[in-house]
Amino acid sequence: MAIVEATAAPNLGPELDQLHRDLADAHVLPTWIYAPQIVPVEPKAGYRPYIWKWQRMHELLMRAGELVTPDRGAERRSIDHINPDLTDSASHTLATAIQLVHPGEVAPAHRHVAGAIRFIIDSGGGEVYTRVEGEKLYMETFDLVMTPKWTWHDHRNESDNDILWLDALDYPFVNMLRASFFEPFDGNQQPTTKPTGFTEKHIGRARPADWKSYPNEVPLVRYKWAETKALLDDMRGQDGNPHDGVLVEYVNPFNSGPALPTMCCFVQLLRAKEHTQSHRATTSTVYYVMAGEGFTVIDGIRFDWVEGDVFVVPPWSWHEHANGTADDALLFSVSDRPIYETFGYYREQALEENGGHQEVTSTHTP
Amino acid sequence: MAIVEATAAPNLGPELDQLHRDLADAHVLPTWIYAPQIVPVEPKAGYRPYIWKWQRMHELLMRAGELVTPDRGAERRSIDHINPDLTDSASHTLATAIQLVHPGEVAPAHRHVAGAIRFIIDSGGGEVYTRVEGEKLYMETFDLVMTPKWTWHDHRNESDNDILWLDALDYPFVNMLRASFFEPFDGNQQPTTKPTGFTEKHIGRARPADWKSYPNEVPLVRYKWAETKALLDDMRGQDGNPHDGVLVEYVNPFNSGPALPTMCCFVQLLRAKEHTQSHRATTSTVYYVMAGEGFTVIDGIRFDWVEGDVFVVPPWSWHEHANGTADDALLFSVSDRPIYETFGYYREQALEENGGHQEVTSTHTP
Amino acid sequence: MAIVEATAAPNLGPELDQLHRDLADAHVLPTWIYAPQIVPVEPKAGYRPYIWKWQRMHELLMRAGELVTPDRGAERRSIDHINPDLTDSASHTLATAIQLVHPGEVAPAHRHVAGAIRFIIDSGGGEVYTRVEGEKLYMETFDLVMTPKWTWHDHRNESDNDILWLDALDYPFVNMLRASFFEPFDGNQQPTTKPTGFTEKHIGRARPADWKSYPNEVPLVRYKWAETKALLDDMRGQDGNPHDGVLVEYVNPFNSGPALPTMCCFVQLLRAKEHTQSHRATTSTVYYVMAGEGFTVIDGIRFDWVEGDVFVVPPWSWHEHANGTADDALLFSVSDRPIYETFGYYREQALEENGGHQEVTSTHTP
Amino acid sequence: MAIVEATAAPNLGPELDQLHRDLADAHVLPTWIYAPQIVPVEPKAGYRPYIWKWQRMHELLMRAGELVTPDRGAERRSIDHINPDLTDSASHTLATAIQLVHPGEVAPAHRHVAGAIRFIIDSGGGEVYTRVEGEKLYMETFDLVMTPKWTWHDHRNESDNDILWLDALDYPFVNMLRASFFEPFDGNQQPTTKPTGFTEKHIGRARPADWKSYPNEVPLVRYKWAETKALLDDMRGQDGNPHDGVLVEYVNPFNSGPALPTMCCFVQLLRAKEHTQSHRATTSTVYYVMAGEGFTVIDGIRFDWVEGDVFVVPPWSWHEHANGTADDALLFSVSDRPIYETFGYYREQALEENGGHQEVTSTHTP
């Protein structure tokens, strides 16, 4: 620990210098010097916005597809987005990855405290499922599927095509808190103990009268893209959110809360030539470009994106989105906002100058 | 970022090596290698248990008392306990410090997102107060006083003696989340806008009928030591908690929840020769020794303590307490447990072997 | 008021008699006499179980169809089930009725504090809807539709056939509490302000991000029979509830609570020859026979039922159900249980003697 | 049942008359006639405001004191206020009574679903207590003491003087719902199992860490008059509530909710010559005059009151209070408002005409 050296203390004479050295030796820190560091005036993300371009990600993942097979220990064939300023995740709380499962493969069963969502990039059109707590959840392109914390899950591709999806997990938050537990299933796959569609059918509006015995905080349902798309189309004519265009949130069907207690999920439609106004919030968000072309300006830097790209907006960073084309653009996103709302830490600010638009000072070149 | 180098991957040939290098260059991480790192099998605190001995702390603080005066910018004359394995706090979520205010001094008014508690070590017996949101809260030895998040507060010593207290703040958690805001008050002191005892009188069992307009999540009351002591004395004859002796929790008088949404506070009585059994939890706790002599065994290391010492138990660390004398020992403690309970991350485990007692493998020498 | 006369006081001499008379004159009641009356040892319903036979109800409603037209003031062409021991409802908290709307008719728009549900007996197969807060909810046979408290609603039949449904309202509870307000809409019909299916589409699992501005405690969705039937079929092989067979509850999609804050709704399947065991609860329930033939024994009286019959089980009355045939029997029911659970007044008791079966002492003859 | 006769139906010809008769015979009610009766346009209390003058109540209770002794079966020596328009209570939901316990007497132990509060009129200055769940709660003049539902309780006067108090119970609401259970204790008195002051000491701001195992929804504490009076004095200089003067509510120390889930309790100070403005609410309230002289205008009728009087304001009745003297007037009151707020049935309306003052059309003469 090198506390005193780290900060330029006012020159208060040799006695004070000696005190500061002695404090450091005794593993205490002088608040009169460190206050600005330990209680920042406003959030400092400490990491940059970043974009991972699909073309490169896809190429790397395909190579992994030839060289690596998921099994016990390796667990998954996925590549995690690592912010250049962080150790093992895209944001300080959220980790995202792209996962590939070949026909016939199984990603082995395990469970962990970290909760996860899957957003299907390309289902291949066939029989692919994640199995959670003994129930198969079949997945189609742009479906969203939950794996709540500490639930057994494995993935299996029974089709003739690859399946690709975006994973998002809260393990950075869990690890911040030193709360991680992981347990491999005894055997590669867990048995299927419930018929397909069991939860969908049993945890709807009409439920078995004893449904309160249902064990999970989040029901094991799939958010079907067809339904979400119908809603977006229905909302297309509305004004929309000034910062996000037509914005839809996925909710927990049990209590209308966020999709997971730590993560909320959105899909947003940017209509032809739509360019939103900037705002910033205490939260971080990872975006996946489902369709279209456009750009997002984050703290003055323009990030151009096309289908398949993934980018992260750090906390308290100004950001605005633009669809540069005459077609729809669609962004899926996952945010750590529920954590902030739980503790009253959520703050949001709209950019008022310049019609809500940032000055673009540079363009990101991958 | 040097991902590949960080972990010894199985030797899978040059093509895989090249893939791993290319992934690192592209700022993605191969889950098949990093899974054990990002989803640990059980919590790893990543920092050690530690003790700060009172004699040394007191000596350093007295020297600071001669050399440093709290003012705008320096803000406070306090010394923060820094775990040797962490950057600026005692645990990953909790920061504690010892603060000294001389007669006649003012620690200037400000507010921050981080919440704070004060546990009075020695009030000096005179008129000393912290003023929160315009209300003076006078403090006596072993009282506990809250400063909920984002409330204006300054401290003033109007007595003829020094006052010393233990501060505990959640700024490490706030900073993990990049949620800190800080605002200095315009002027050194805030005005007193409410008579002394206002909240005490107005937010009791009988309340003004419009009390729901009260602005704070936590009422500005002081937990008087005399009342807490009476309860401890009353409970003295009970069996007590196997891990903590006679254990008392301070609750939020509004809702019986934890003292603050992120921190809970306890005082525990270890009776003559009482030696508790070990357990561990996913949470971290900082202890302040109010009275007595004894020791705590943390993950096999014995930490001897006397009055005034402060020590930290990291997450998932076995710990048991022992009062080595024929007199009472009293420990005040603050824990991050509410954060864990909020997200379902709280786990606790009792040591079953050896009658619940750890093997002591070493004794900590400060 | 004739208190003293109402109860046989012990003969305590002329002075006490005079005191009792004076108390009555002064409008006070001697607890020493009235305690058993005002604090009963166990619930006394004060009204009988009863059954309304469909054949007779249908005949009466058809005659009303020829003689009465719903309009402002008359409001509805429906006939309310009146327990012979009560003034204006089937149970002390619940009112049910059978309503008929002819092709082309409108039941005019109004709103009231009383909440309502509609269970469709026969939709006629065409375009019929209830319009709630500007949104048309089309109804098919055995669908369930909500009208939460204080929502504007009118009904319209645009088909070529009659529509018949069961209404259930909580107006007896509202009136007990003297909490009723009623307001006619200015005009016979309210305008349609939302496209058909609006709520269904907007308040699903994916929702407009600003959905929390949705004004009603209960979303305006229809519980489609096809979905409920699929669940019942799926549960058919289970053991079922010992008192109710295969039992399904309709829940509020916003919070998984009861269908309305005062009323919960169920459908139950009694399989071929299934005969349930008796229990009793502090609540009251009204049943509608959707299909099949059977009987229910209520406090020793056998009530035989066929399709279309409605019967009421008063509080704290033993009851068991039997399907006497080799086909399915289906009962829809509405209960006041949420009121009791809210205040901790819900109690339930299973009959333990005689294998859970009551002795039948008589058969009800309508 | 005589439905048809009860209402003057429009003359619609003999066929309709016959239908109405047949409906009545079949125990169904034509909504087209009864709608206004079953869904009133606004609340109709159905009972009058009323006042019970202390002088008369006291005289009657003293006579009861000579003639009646509380024992098992008679249970209590108390006289219940019976609204002249109701069967057994002051309001439709609330029952109040005045109770007398002589020196040396015991009111035997029992429990019931109905919850109760005691407001002490005159403690006699000595050792008198109600014992709830094994704990003695000593009572002084103007203290408020809770008996939550289904808790064992007996009363004992160990002093040399009579004790008099006001009881308020929710048995009318419990009985409306047919939810009453009553159980006598096996023996006249329950044993004392906890030391005096146990709950007071154990369920304060510092609590035994395992306090969540505390069995009651409401802690067994006494609201001491000295504390409430201090608050009222402190608030004396404020503007106060336009309808109620200086108004203080007693809250449940566990959750800041109402004193009991069904009843809330208030004390209000009407300062010298203070005359409040009228309002009305869907709830009912019973007032006890603690001190002073004044009057309350209820739906145009002036009720003059002096110390000791009890009066009831029915639902949706305009009411305003006036202190006619140059001294303080104090009113204790109990209201059923929590029931209404639970279901969203609470409505309140301020009188806007005539400066918020009703026209007095008559004066009540007892």
| Tally of helical segments of chain A | 8
Main beta-sheet strand count, sense and barrel state of chain A = 6 strands, antiparallel
Number of strands of chain A: 25
Mean pLDDT of chain A: 93
State the distance separating the first and last CA atoms of chain A: 36 Å
* Form type of chain A: globular
Low-pLDDT runs of 5+ residues of chain A are 1-9
Q: Give the structural class of chain A.
A: alpha+beta
Strand numbers in spatial order across the main sheet of chain A: 2-21-18-23-16-15
Classify the helix fraction of chain A into a percent range: 10-25%
Q: Give the chain pair forming the largest contact, with residue counts.
A: A-B, 89 and 89 residues
Oligomer: homotetramer
Radius of gyration of chain A, in angstroms, nearest whole number: 23 Å
Strand content of chain A: 25-35%
